[in-house]
Amino acid sequence: MRFTLLASAAFVALPLVANAQTAVFEDLDLDSNGSLSYAELQAEYPEFQEADMALIDVDENQMVDTGEYLNAVEGDVIDTVLGAEDGRGGESN
Ligand SMILES: [Ca+2]
Ligand SMILES: [Ca+2]
């Protein structure tokens, strides 16, 4: 019984991670237009530079859509750009 519960937890874990990231995306999307502008990213991550957009904005339309954001998260691009996984609500500086 215990093994069954563990296996079930493993199966639901991945979708939950994706859902959590999608929730973060929606949180960042201040005007709810389905994509993140540089201003919206910078509002959440003050250390985010305009040049960093090129690392995330794969199709170079100056907007980060859900797929680009999830790719950046999964590829640790966000972590690399921001220098920390937990970049939210930093009190330094
Ligand atoms: Ca937006
Ligand atoms: Ca884009």
Describe this structure in words.
Helix 1 crosses helix 4. The termini are far apart. The protein has a two-stranded antiparallel sheet with strand order 1-2. With 93 residues, it is mainly α. It has helices spanning 2-28, 38-44, 53-56, 66-74, 77-82; strands at 35-36, 64-65. It has a domain at 26-86: Recoverin, domain 1 (Orthogonal Bundle). It is built from five helices and two strands, in the order H-E-H-H-E-H-H. Bound molecules: calcium ion (2 copies). The site of one calcium ion has 7 residues, from strand 2.
Properties at a glance:
5 helices; two-stranded antiparallel ribbon; Recoverin, domain 1; mainly alpha; binds calcium ion; single chain; 93 residues
Condensed summary:
The protein has 93 residues and is mainly alpha-helical. The protein has helices at residues 2-28, 38-44, 53-56, 66-74, 77-82, and strands at 35-36, 64-65. A two-stranded antiparallel ribbon has the order 1-2.
Number of strands: 2
Mind telling me the C-alpha Rg? Answer: 15 Å
Tell me the structural class: mainly alpha
The total of helices stands at 5
Beta-strand percentage range: under 5%
Tell me what the CATH architecture of the domain at 26-86 is: Orthogonal Bundle
- Spans of 5+ residues with little confidence (pLDDT < 50)? none
Overall mean pLDDT stands at: 81
Q: Major beta sheet, specifics? A: 2 strands, antiparallel
Order of helices and strands: HEHHEHH
**Tertiary shape:** elongated
CATH superfamily of the domain at 26-86: EF-hand
Q: What is the CATH first-level class name of the domain at 26-86?
A: Mainly Alpha
Rounded to the nearest angstrom, the distance between the terminal CA atoms is: 50 Å
- Which small compounds were modeled alongside the protein? calcium ion
The CATH topology assignment of the domain at 26-86 is Recoverin, domain 1
